[in-house]
Amino acid sequence: MSTLNPQDAKAFGKVGVLFGGRSAEREVSNMSGAGVLAALKSKGIDAHPFDPGQRSLAELAAEKFDRVFIALHGRFGEDGSLQGALELLGIPYTGSGVMASSVGMDKITTKIVWLHQGLPTPRYAVLNAQSDLAATAADLGLPLIVKPPHEGSTIGITKVSEAAGFKAAYDIAAALDDSVMAEEFVTGREFTVAILGGGATARALPVVEIVAPEGNYDYQNKYFTDDTKYHCPAALPDALAAEMQRIAVQAYRALGCEGWGRVDVLLRETDQKPFLLEVNTSPGMTSHSLVPMAARAEGISYEDLCVEILRTARLKMKG
Prior knowledge:
- With 319 residues, the protein is an alpha+beta fold.
- Helix content is 35%, strand content 20%.
- 45% of the residues are buried.
- Its EC number is 6.3.2.4.
- Pathway: Cell wall biogenesis; peptidoglycan biosynthesis.
C-alpha cells in the first residue's frame, strides 16, 4: 500500500482521530475509529487516537491537533455538540458543521426541512405520554415504525404490527429520548446513498442495496453478522438509480451537510417511488460499513477515502 508523498502527508500536520465517545454507539465508533486511524497512518499521516468519552476538552486542546477526523456516532459526537466545541477551540474538523449536524441528528426536524423542500419522506407523528396511540395507528396505518428521533444505528426502533404492541414500542423509545416518533411503514427495498463534498460540489457515490435477514436491518445485522447482503452498485434501472442519487444529494444539501454523509432511502414496492428515511452526518467506517463499500465501487480504496475526507476538514464558522 502506497503512502502519500511525505510533503503531502506532512501538510496535514498532527491529526486527531476522535472515536469512542459517550453515546449508545460507542462500540461501533471504536471500530470506525480504529479503521480510520490505521488507514491514515498507512498513508504516512501523523495521526493519533483521542476518545472524548474518556478525556476532557482541556486535554483535546492541549494535544494541539492541526485537524481532527470525527469518527464518533450518535450523541456528543454527531449531534453538533462536539462540532461547537471544536469551533470554539479553533480545530478544523471533518464532516458537517454545528447546525447541519444537529438537524441531521434530529429525525423530526430533518423531516420538517425535507417536507418543506418538497422531498418525499414517510408520514410521521410526534408522540408523548399523553398521545392517543390508537388514533396515531389509525392515521398512519399498521404496521408502523416507532423510534427515538435522536438515536442512530437502529437503536430503540420497533416495528409495530398490531395495535396491542404500540405502547411497549413507545416505552422502549421513550426510555432513550424525550420525544418519540411514529412513522408510516413503507414496504419495499432498502438502499443507501453515500455522498462526498458539500454544496454545489456534493456528489453521490453508487447506490447500495441492503438485503437483511427477514428485512430486519437491526444493530446486530448492521455490524456483527455476515447474514446481511449488500449489492453495490444496486440492481436498479439507470434512471431510477440516478433519481435516488438526485434526491439524496438534494436532501443532504437541504440540511447544509458537507464533507461526507449517507442518506438512507426506501423504494416503495407498489409504485417504485423512493422515500427518504434519514441522513447520517458521521457514518460508520467499519468493515461492514456502507460508505467505504460505495467508494470501492467507484475505485476509491478505504485508505484513500479516509484521506479524501480528511482533506475537507475545516472550521465552518467565520469570525
